[in-house]
Each structure stands twice: as structure tokens, then as C-alpha cells.
């Protein structure tokens, strides 16, 4: 029997976290020959995830360079992937989400005549500048791809509004599948800051802040909010794994060093991050992925952005958009840290993003598309 040849493309840590469980699922299927191409848009942080899931890439473009720009990343992805696509000649190339690797990888595959599938399709803010450049990257991928693996029904509706009507499967989000591999009750933290915070018995507030559109005053506002919260709630510890961007790292230390219950640490490995979320009281973030992971772990999430391409959790009540103004962040976080009823309402809200079977649905949908399975998988309903 001829196998279906699937090429999975990823370049950054967030992509790898969500694609790794899919790679493992595809490699379990006897009908599928799955190979992995990494662009290494982010090198070290990507490699951490690959090591965690035991994945060795079949192709490694290793494109990361000092002071790389979006233009140089896109150019190197397109030129590098051409040889990979010619060599493997996949039946379908899978890209994930919204990175420059996603948009450029999809375009390269299309130029080489390959069918392209989009994992985590249909997320939208309809603001081309926020998140930047991710919103346009997603729109480009959606226009190129022929198979669309939408995490939620809302994502499907976004695609339909753009007149994308064929090849859509509602799957849930693969990040929920990833949590099954990483979160453990007996997990041992390797990073001293995380281990000490957990061992202290204090309430943990996990902070992440790294988005491009928040550079400058918005990040300053976020850091000032963290400072005020730490002083207001000395019984808790705010743990901030600082993004390696030099300017952001420098500013974070300028504003937050010296406050006893604010701990700045290096970026955490994926399994540490997931297990720290599981042990946190509250998550403050401008990340996209944490808006999905937090609800899956029963943790309230305050989004430090003006909008979100993940409105399902806002509607469900487990995520709230607090924005980037200091007073708003302090108000919303303080309410959750002092009001058990408000906290429980968010913590117990139903997670709309998945049931841990997204990868299974994607594999089944691919096999159905290529005539290797008799029936299409049932859509994830969120109920």
C-alpha cells in the first residue's frame, strides 16, 4: 500500500509545542509516512521542545541569524524549503498557526505544487496590526491552504465568512493534547526559581509579556502593574520568565529588580512552563497559547492585550481581556486574588479549546481526504 506522505513544518517553540503531539500521532498511523522539517526560526527554544517530545527532524534549515528580520526569515524559509519539498514530494504539507515560518512555508509548498494543510486555522482579530505580524500570517495561510483544521466552531465561522468552504474540520486545539504529555503531579522543576516558588507554598502569579505590539509603553504599564500587585499582595510571588529579546529583558530588570516577591528567570522549558501553570493561582499574559493552556488547567487568565484572536474563552468566562493599562490590570488581578466567588467562576468555566483528541481528528481527516479512511471524523463540539 502506498503511504500518504505528510511533511510537518515548524520553526518556533509555540509551533513545536502544538505540532509535536500531532507528529507523534501521525507516526503511529501505518498509512502515513510523516517527516518533520524545522526552519529553526527560533533555534534554542525550538530544540527544547523537540527534545522533550523525542522528535529528531528529518530536515533542519537552521535559518536563525543574529538580528534577523521578518523579511530575512521569510526569504530563508522559502528558499530552504524548496529543496525539502523537491526531495520528499509530500502529499500534504502541514503548517501551524501564525508565524513567519507558517506563512512562508505555506507559500513555498504552494509554489512547489504541494497541497497545504493549516493546523490551528481560522483564528482572527480582523486587525492587521494586532497581533503583528501574526494576523496577516494567518490570513495568508488561510488563503493558500486547502485543508483547514480549525480548533473551534467560531474559527470555522471565520473561514466561512472569508468564503473558505471546503476542507474544514473542527478538531479542538492540539495544545490540549500536548498537556497530556507534560503535566505531572510528581514533576520535579529543574529551574531553581520555579522550584523555589512552588516549594514556598505562596500563591503564584505567572506573568508572561513579550508581544511586539506591546513593546514600549504597554510593557512598561504591565511591569508597573506587576510592581503594584507585588506590593499589595506580599503573600504571593510573581514569577516572570523573561523573553530573551535584549531590550525587553533589560527593561524588565530595570523596573522589577529588587522587589522581594517578583522573580525574573530565564525562559522555562515547555514541561516546566506547563507544570508551573498547573501550580499557579493566576496567569497574566500577552501570549496566545497560554489563553488555551490556562483554561485547560483550570486557571483564570488575564490577557494583557487590547484584543484576542481566541474569543471563545472570553465568552466561556475563563479568560478576561485586561488590556495594557496599569490600573485595569491591577484592578482585575486584585479582584481575582481577593474574591473567592469571582475566582471560582473563572477557574471552573468550561474550556472551549479541546478534549485532548485534536491530533487524532487531524490524522483521520487527512486519511479521509486521501481515500484511506471511509468516514470523516466527527467535529469537536466544545461540549
UniProtKB/TrEMBL annotation:
This is UDP-N-acetylglucosamine 2-epimerase (non-hydrolyzing). It is an enzyme of class 5 (isomerase). Keywords: Isomerase. Gene3D superfamilies: Glycogen Phosphorylase B. Its EC number is 5.1.3.14. Belongs to the UDP-N-acetylglucosamine 2-epimerase family. GO terms for molecular function: UDP-N-acetylglucosamine 2-epimerase activity. SUPFAM superfamilies: UDP-Glycosyltransferase/glycogen phosphorylase. The gene is wecB. The keyword Isomerase applies. It comes from Feifania hominis. It comes from the Bacteria. CDD domains: GTB_UDP-GlcNAc_2-Epimerase. Residues 25-366 form the UDP-N-acetylglucosamine 2-epimerase domain.
